[in-house]
């Protein structure tokens, strides 16, 4: 429970009162499944004396994830960024690739790192996902592909992006870092485009501490990526492809197997947190919580409030007030990738082409959730929002 209940401005820590919570509450605080099971698996790894390089735990993890997603191949990797880079390289992307700016910067970096130019397309301000018309406008003779992002776990407009890719002969893949367990038209994310890339970072709804995977139904693509993640080795002493070290270690797979068993529980808690915040904030004018609808599955991991009351300073003042209470809400993904280096030097006037991205980035607040959310956090957040929106501070 919080150390105090916030009723008026004098209870706020920015006004000198003690913080509501003694310890910081983070966005992305990890969900951790059954400790005993995890430790049992770690014991098994040590007994095996097989720690990495496609060990039995990684193989079991890949099989379980592939079955869960209903996809033929899961190629587990050391993190989501390397998984993106390997997928991009395996698809042979080059020249320019269209991506949203409104995503974690790794989506753009995975291209730029390999000498490919990320070209930013604007988003739909309601869903925060790519706007297909904006994607069309960014196509040039150098464009070779599109990377859609299922932001906040809500599916990108997959059918529309596939139609554009087909029409212009472009490769289409998805950054599904947020979308483990999400659906599109009732089908699990993982089967769309030529491949989809997950992040299993500690801060994700489903985590392997560090980790990621590319999933695909394409046998040849999966085989190429398996080679690429292990220096191109095919058996002892036989390198048949350029490659890197993108392997997942056994301990991460052990965490993944343990957390997979707990995933439904995590989603249920997240959904309850999401509903709690939405109800608590519902009557505050100019503030809303993004709703993912009832027809598609979502892990409800990202709970995104939008501050849109016409006061351009309110969002940041709320963040400051929440931080003072030890609630470390975030402005993900402000200012958008186009506002970060090196992209802000490449495209100094990108704001003109990205009006929805710019508007959305000025109003988001991502709130803490997950199984470790302490009692009283939702109510404290709502009280802070209310007092600042009322102009009491
Ligand atoms: N594509 C998208 C759309 C992504 O969102 C991401 C990653 C990627 C690609 C790349 O996947 P990876 O290569 O990361 O697998 C964090 C994560 O590091 C990043 O994985 C994630 N997206 C992004 C949305 O969030 P930061 O820079 O915000 O990290 P940091 O250190 O500020 O931590 C986030 C919060 O989590 C903090 O409030 C602290 C808390 N935390 C963190 C860790 C690691 C904990 O409470 N416990 C922990 O163990 O990027």
Question: What does this 3D model show about the protein?
Answer:
- This protein has 393 residues and is an alpha/beta fold.
- The longest helix is centred in the last third of the chain and has 32 residues, at 250-281.
- The strands form four sheets. It has a seven-stranded mixed beta sheet with strand order 2-10-9-6-5-3-4, with helices on both faces.
- The protein has helices at residues 35-48, 56-69, 80-90, 106-112, 132-137, 158-168, 219-228, 250-281, 314-324, 343-346, 355-361, 377-389; strands spanning 25-26, 73-77, 96-100, 117-121, 143-149, 171-175, 183-184, 187-188, 196-199, 212-216, 287-289, 303-307, 327-328, 364-367.
- Helix 8 (250-281) crosses helix 12.
- Strand 5 (143-149), helix 6 (158-168) and strand 6 (171-175) form a beta-alpha-beta unit.
- It folds into two domains: 3-24 and 262-389, Aspartate Aminotransferase, domain 1; 35-258, Aspartate Aminotransferase, domain 2 (3-Layer(aba) Sandwich).
- The radius of gyration is 22 Å and the shape is globular.
- The chain has twelve helices and 14 strands.
- The two termini are 24 Å apart.
- 36% of the residues lie in helices and 14% in strands.
- The structure holds ligand T4K.
């Amino acid at each position: 429970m919080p150390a105090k209940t916030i009723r008026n401005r004098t209870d706020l820590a920015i006004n000198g009162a003690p913080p509501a919570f003694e310890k910081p509450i983070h966005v992305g605080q990890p969900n951790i499944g059954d400790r005993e099971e995890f430790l049992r698996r770690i014991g098994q790894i040590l007994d095996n004396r097989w720690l990495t390089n496609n060990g039995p735990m990684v193989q079991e993890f890949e099989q379980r994830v592939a079955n869960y997603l209903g996809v033929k191949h899961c190629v587990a990797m050391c993190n989501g960024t390397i998984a993106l880079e390997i997928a991009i390289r395996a698809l042979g992307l080059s020249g320019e690739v269209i991506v949203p700016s409104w995503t974690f910067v790794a989506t753009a970096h995975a291209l730029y790192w390999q000498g490919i130019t990320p070209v930013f397309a604007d988003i739909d301000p309601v869903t925060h996902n790519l706007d297909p018309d904006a994607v069309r406008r960014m196509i040039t003779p150098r464009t070779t592909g599109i990377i859609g992002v299922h932001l906040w776990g809500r599916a990108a407009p997959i059918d529309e992006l596939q139609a554009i890719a087909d029409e212009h002969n472009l490769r289409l893949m998805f950054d599904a870092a947020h979308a483990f367990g999400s659906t599109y038209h009732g089908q699990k994310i993982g089967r769309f485009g030529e491949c989809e890339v997950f992040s299993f970072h500690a801060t994700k709804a489903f985590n392997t501490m560090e980790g990621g995977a590319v999933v695909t139904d394409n046998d040849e693509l999966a085989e190429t990526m398996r080679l690429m993640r292990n220096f191109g080795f095919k058996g002892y002493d036989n390198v048949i492809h350029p490659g890197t070290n993108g392997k997942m270690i056994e301990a991460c797979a052990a965490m993944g197997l343990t957390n997979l068993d707990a995933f439904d529980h995590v989603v249920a808690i997240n959904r309850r947190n999401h509903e709690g915040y939405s109800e608590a904030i519902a009557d505050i004018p100019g503030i809303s919580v993004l709703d993912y609808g009832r027809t598609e599955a979502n892990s409800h991991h990202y709970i995104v409030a939008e501050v849109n009351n016409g006061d351009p300073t309110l969002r940041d003042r709320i963040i400051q007030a929440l931080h003072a209470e030890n609630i470390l809400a975030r402005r993900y993904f402000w200012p958008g990738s186009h506002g970060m280096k090196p992209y802000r030097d490449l495209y100094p006037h990108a704001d003109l082409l990205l009006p929805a991205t710019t508007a959305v980035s000025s109003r988001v607040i991502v709130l803490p959730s997950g199984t470790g959310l302490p009692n009283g956090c939702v109510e404290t957040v709502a009280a802070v929002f209310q007092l600042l929106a009322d102009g009491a501070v």
